[in-house]
Amino acid sequence: MCGFVGAFDLSSGSQPIDEGLREELRRQVLEQSRTIRHRGPDWSGVYSGGSAILSHERLAIVDPFSGKQPLVSGDGKVILAANGEIYNHKTIRAEFASAYDFRTNSDCEVIIPLYQKYRDSGDFGAMIEKLSGIFAFALYDSERDEYLVARDEIGVIPLYQGWDKAGRFYVASELKALEGWCTTVEEFPNGCFLWSGGNRKPVRWYSRKWESFDAVAENPKASDPNGIVVNPSVIESVRNALENAVRAQLMSDVPYGVLLSGGLDSSIIAAVTQKFARKRVETDSTEGAWWPRLHSFAIGLEGSPDLAAARKAADYIGTVHHEIHFTIQEALDALRDVIYHIETYDITTVRASTPMYLLARAIKAMGIKMVLSGEGSDELFGGYLYFHKAPNAREFHEELVRKMGKLHLYDCLRANKSLMAWGVEGRVPFLDKEFIDVAMSLNPLDKMSIRLPDGTQRIEKWILRKAFEDILPAEIVWRQKEQFSDGVGYNWIDTLRTMTEEKVSDAEFARRENRFPVNPPKTKEEYFYREIYSELFPSDSAARVVPHEAGVACSTAKALEWDAAWKNMDEPSGRAIAGVHDKAY
């Protein structure tokens, strides 16, 4: 995981490129790149030539010694700056072993021969589909004076695009690298690529049949209407696919760990990781791991439900467990830094990012550079408590598809930027491309909290719990969903509400549309975050980059139709779902 800045179309506008202007732009790009050096504290590199400048800040996880970037092809004509991990790089490397002279062991270098294979056809969608991983990259072909920019299917890796007043085009791993230099800034859309030899607009490369409910409605079911398992192979497919995803994502030449909140998702990832952690996956598990003890990390206020549950899970799994306590004041003191790093004023994201930001700092202090996390499970399996109110399978599945399409705005943004603020890479096995296809192709009835004949309601994510019930304690497997910002300690959210009510006066809030004409805040808590954000990122473009959608307990706006009582609510906490959350403890 790293960070990069790319500048293209250097001759745009009224200023033709000459050596003086090139040097000026090179210095500017280096200054932009310096703002995201927290993403890559291990190495800095820059390329300048033709009509492009690429600067890269490296966090060395795979091939720490020779994999510095930008990467350059053997003939010096193709230059690549990439952020992320390509988990199937060995398979792709083998395909091009006789046709391409690899200069490093970097997983990202395989993007160069793939590009060379597909550049004549221009079928870059097929090219990118070959990649299994999390990534954003900018590639410059100096011979053709063309560039290719792309982002992974879900948007696990952040990417932004912008244009300066002369019309030059920029891409960067974080918004802060473009703010102040570009007159217009946008998020680069997930699952898309942009090729300068085409219409210079993002083109969608990622599409799946499961995006339509009709494509999954008749798929085999694991259970019957009584909740009895009748097709165990469906459950086994979930387990096998997730274990494959975790194993693939353990490739690392540096120490790694797992985030363990004590919830179902992180506990599953920790348990499966422990299964493979004693052997080095890079050798097909024929050699012992370089770091054979798996470390797990949890954070919370003293007495929080997450800490107690994480302790139970860690004891059962056998990890070396680290429990990080934070105080309300420490979290409040960190708010400005958190908003600077996560680049959003979204309430849910700020609430959850703050303890994660503090946790990442402790992880880095331990010398850990990569962690696996449980993000994405709730979007795949309908884990948020509001899904209990889904009126039917179609509505349930279509909400999952909407949630998957918005992950890059919320959970993925939080996990990536909170961790990368301290140079810690986060990997998310639930969002492995192949696992997504398995999970989203399941019959939605196997995921729903259906009412059983005995009058009880089946717990959310039932099929995922069944798939892994034998490797975790029962109280973890069947623990009800607890959103991270709730689980670290309820006083955290309660304090934020109280504090922001006091800090933002009624008069200020009444004039919110005058103060913030773009996306006016809906609550005083959002107003408070928005003021900090606007000081750090003052442009209207930066304000528009942040999502602004009504919801309840992390729902989309569309799901508000499921319950009349929600229509006047706008509260992201899971506790907003009265009668469901109350049963958790």
Describe the 3D structure:
It is a single chain. By secondary structure, this protein is α+β, with helices and mostly antiparallel strands. The protein folds into 2 domains: 2-203, Aminohydrolase, N-terminal nucleophile (Ntn) domain (Glutamine Phosphoribosylpyrophosphate, subunit 1, domain 1, 4-Layer Sandwich), CATH 3.60.20.10; 211-335 and 355-407 and 421-481, 3-Layer(aba) Sandwich (Rossmann fold), CATH 3.40.50. It is 35% helix and 15% strand. Helix 5 packs antiparallel against helix 13, helix 9 runs parallel beside helix 12 (411-420) and helix 17 (490-503) crosses helix 20. The longest helix has 19 residues, at 347-365.
Oligomer: single chain
Strand order of the largest sheet: 2-3-1-9-8-10
Low-confidence stretches: 580-585
User: Can you summarize the main beta sheet?
Assistant: 6 strands, antiparallel
Shape, principal axes of CA atoms: globular
Radius of gyration: 24 Å
Helix count from the secondary structure assignment? 21
Mind telling me which CATH architecture of the largest domain this is? 3-Layer(aba) Sandwich
Residue share in β-strands:
5-15%
CATH homolog superfamily of the largest domain: HUPs
CATH topology of the largest domain: Rossmann fold
What percent of residues adopt helix (DSSP H or I)?
25-40%
For the record, the count of structural domains works out to: 2
Instruction: Supply the CATH class of the largest domain.
Output: Alpha Beta
Structural class: alpha+beta
Terminal Cα separation, in Å?
38 Å
DSSP strand tally = 17
Instruction: Name the average pLDDT.
Output: 93
Domain Glutamine amidotransferase type-2: 2-199
Pathway: Amino-acid biosynthesis; L-asparagine biosynthesis; L-asparagine from L-aspartate (L-Gln route): step 1/1
GO molecular function: asparagine synthase (glutamine-hydrolyzing) activity; ATP binding
Keywords: Amino-acid biosynthesis, Asparagine biosynthesis, ATP-binding, Glutamine amidotransferase, Ligase, Nucleotide-binding
